[in-house]
Write a structure and sequence with these properties.
two-stranded antiparallel sheet; single chain; 394 residues; alpha+beta; Pdz3 Domain
């Protein structure tokens, strides 16, 4: 029952976000008298045709319940579509750009309304980012340093985890040892330990707390390292921590948070891309591939949320973050995505202004669009396989 409710909740949230995303394409197309050939409910292959409205738009139900899609006239190249007065290409470049990028305002407004409402009422952070190193600071997904400074997390010194066969392990350090001080200097952060070891070629006295006993060890760094992982020893999570602002402050904070969450998403995508394309080691690439998840991983997340009976505010926060992810994803310059189509329109308009012809021919543009869409479908299938594999082997 929990699994079913979680999947239904995930589908409803995801449907709402993507539906309003596509609704703005649909609405502006209708506003500028561009024919909408088809409104897909989910992704093909086609299951059945539902109905046709007065403007001859066909509403189709498909088999893959992970997306919605608006198909405008001229999505498939033909002379009739190219020359018709109701096709996308027949409209001014300004109107074409508005139709293609109409979703930006919707995704921005949806996330902003959720953030501002929760900031005004009160809400807690969604999660602590303990996995990825980022420079962007957010309130709803703070990194460990931000969480500590904000008193979301309470820490008790730092923990050690010696690498196997390392000088740290040979010096009798063990996993989960709590480091109190080095050479009579109290250590409060991982950076303090790293810097102290890095610039000290001589033997160091480590004062350790282990099972309520205090021990000391003499350790001489090798190549300016003791070869041990180090992180904050998290004592507990402050469950009473809440964000709550006045109405004026909420409006300011939602703008900052929406910007920062968008920037964080871009940063995470870029780091993921670098780790896959140019990893420092084979494990980094594998870790990056394993971190891919969509949409089945999202369904599994909602199953967990239902099982833990989380507050409705948490569901709203996740919806806002998903809306931002969709926004940023569509800004990627990849064929079949909205920003790519906007980019082609922009390039063509500039070239037409100076040379009276398009930089990218209509047939070539449509071919690139179809190829890009096919790649996205294959990528979705691959990630779905990854999601299934991770869930059933967990």
């Amino acid at each position: 029952m929990t699994v079913a409710l979680g999947i239904i909740l995930a589908i409803l949230v995801f449907w709402a976000i993507v539906f309003f995303h596509e609704l703005w394409h649909f609405s502006f197309a209708k506003l500028f008298w561009v024919k909408v050939d088809e409104f897909w409910l989910w992704i093909p292959p086609k299951m059945m045709k539902l109905f046709k409205d007065k403007s001859w738009t066909v509403y189709t139900l498909n088999w893959l319940p992970i997306w919605w899609f608006v198909k405008l006239k001229w999505e498939e190249y033909s002379e009739d579509a190219r020359n018709g007065n109701d096709s996308l290409i027949s409209k001014s470049i300004f109107k074409q750009m508005i139709i293609v990028l109409a979703w930006v305002m919707m995704n921005f407004l949806l996330a902003s309304m959720i953030f501002s409402t929760l900031f005004y009422i009160w809400t807690e952070p969604l999660a602590i980012n303990t996995k990825f190193q980022t420079t962007t600071k957010t309130k709803f997904i703070p990194d460990i340093e931000t969480a500590i400074k904000s008193w979301i997390l309470n820490i008790d010194w730092i923990s050690l985890d010696p690498i196997k066969w390392s000088i740290a392990e040979k010096s009798w350090l063990k996993s989960w040892d709590i480091l109190l001080q080095i050479n009579d200097k109290k250590i409060q952060t991982p950076e303090e330990m790293v810097n102290l070891v890095k610039y000290s070629p001589w033997s160091l006295i480590f004062k350790i707390k282990r099972n309520n006993n205090e021990l000391t060890f003499n350790i001489t760094p090798v190549w300016w390292k003791v070869w041990s992982y180090v992180w904050y020893n998290i004592k507990n999570l402050n469950k009473d921590f809440k964000y709550k602002y006045s109405l004026k402050e909420s409006i300011r904070e939602w703008f900052i948070e929406t910007y920062n969450e968008s920037k964080l998403t871009v940063e995470l995508l870029w780091n993921l891309f670098i780790k896959i394309v140019k990893p420092n080691n084979v494990y980094e690439r594998q870790e990056a591939v394993n971190s891919l998840g969509w949409p089945i991983a999202v369904w599994n997340l909602f199953v967990t949320l239902v099982d833990e009976k989380v507050k409705f505010s948490v569901i709203l926060l996740i919806a806002a973050v998903l809306s931002i992810n969709l926004w940023v994803f569509n800004l990627l310059p990849f064929p079949a995505l909205d920003w790519w189509r906007f980019f082609v329109m922009l390039i063509n308009s500039v070239v037409i202004f100076f040379f009276w012809k398009k930089a990218i021919d209509d047939r070539i543009e449509q071919l690139i669009h179809v190829m890009g869409f096919s790649i996205l479908i294959l990528l979705s299938i691959f990630i779905a396989y990854q999601d299934f594999f991770k869930i059933f082997t967990k």
